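Hello,

Our lab assistant flagged a job as stuck in the queue for most of the afternoon. It eventually completed. Since we weren't sure the result was trustworthy after the delay, we are filing this so someone can double-check. Below is the sequence as submitted and the structure that was eventually returned. Let us know if re-running is recommended.
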Amino acid sequence: MKVLDEILNGIEVIRVSGDTRVMVSSITSDSGKAGTGAVFVAVKGTRTDGHLFINQAVSSGAVVVVCEKAPPEGFPGVVTVTVPDSAAALGYMASAFWGNPSASLRLVGVTGTNGKTTIATLLYRMFTELGYKCGLLSTVCNYVHERQYEASHTTPDPVALNGILAEMVDAGCEYAFMEVSSHASDQKRIAGIEFSGGIFTNLTHDHLDYHKTFDNYLAAKKRFFDGLGSRAFALVNADDRNSRVMIQNCRAAVHSYSLTRLAEYRASVSELRLDGMSLNIGGREVWTPFLGGFNASNLLAVYAASRLLGAAEEEALRVLSALTPVAGRLEIIRSEEGITGLVDYAHTPDALKNVTDTINRVRMGSVKLITVIGAGGDRDRTKRPLMASIAAAASDVLILTSDNPRTEDQERILDEMEAGLNSVLRKKMMRIADRRSAIRTGVRLAVPGDIVLVAGKGHETYQEINGIRHHFDDREELRNAFMDLNL
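-- returned structure --
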């Protein structure tokens, strides 16, 4: 239980009606969770407006309503707090309700189009290996020290986020690492969170279904760095020209990393093979079982951030060399016959190009690349033809298939992907809407030495069709297809 006054401290308030010394039991923006003694914060969302559900929340037992526009008559027996921005207020109030847990952690946020999951997860593993209790909030999974929780969003809503951070503090965690999505930044889910550092990876074509324009997408990412305090660090990828925009007006101490430009932290790829690569980091050679320049950049970011967080150079390099790829990120699965399967989460044009470019740098002679890929439904449609074109140009065989069609017609999605192919590229293409059949076909077309890339879903263990999630794991399907070769 908390006194309302305590969680309103520091919040910009326009008007209060009622006694702010009232005791409250919970805080929520979901009217369905507004039980007895709750604070209900009415937030204008992308699909609906929480102000429409105030009466429902009050009927369910809410004793406080925080909103941007209160009815003149108010609500009998209910404290009404009018604020200029209820989304931001929710973040600050949630943080205060849970005792400002982020202030007790060295919390680092990772943002960018690609690389967020890998960097956040590897930093969690790095500092765990260095002997610290750590927390992780990622697309794949959340961890409170060694306890694992399912992740439903890249960045949870403010109440859930602060609740998890409070669990980390209670568990004795000293460090925490989290992905910060552009949606979370735009929707102010991280309002009230105190970050010790922020990492920018890159910015490419994605989420334009939500942000509408690239400038809006850029602004959402920049907002995270604008909010960093003067005692935090901002670590940016100098290889991406948007890094300069991220740090404009940033109060944090700015640091940079790069594979190609002058930067504080530098690395280069000395050797690249299908089973890993050798990196030169600051004149030191490190072998790692990761593939590709994009992973070299991710690993350099992990090394740089660990140094900024106080890790010794020798220790950081030692642990870095022992880290392994994150689930569904260029994950290698080999058949007994010598066919190499690769499962990757690449679902943007840039990520797909990075993955296929990496594969084409290591495959030799007559080795074929067979790529199986789709595109998600109810998401950015403009990237569909681009992804098909990139995959076809890089592959010997392209199989277009479904991803998570959600509520869209699968064949329509494939039509929009195929529209990106010219007559030459279409000769490499097959269309198999059923993803299981597409993966099995890709494997049957391969001979020993060939590479089958299954891209788009990575770590996901479901396929969403007509709003229903069915169990589906690309890694399982690839292994099963390999096993069937022996039957």
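-- support follow-up --
The delay was a queue issue, not a problem with the job. The result is valid. Residues 293-308 form the longest helix (16 residues). The longest strand covers residues 265-273.
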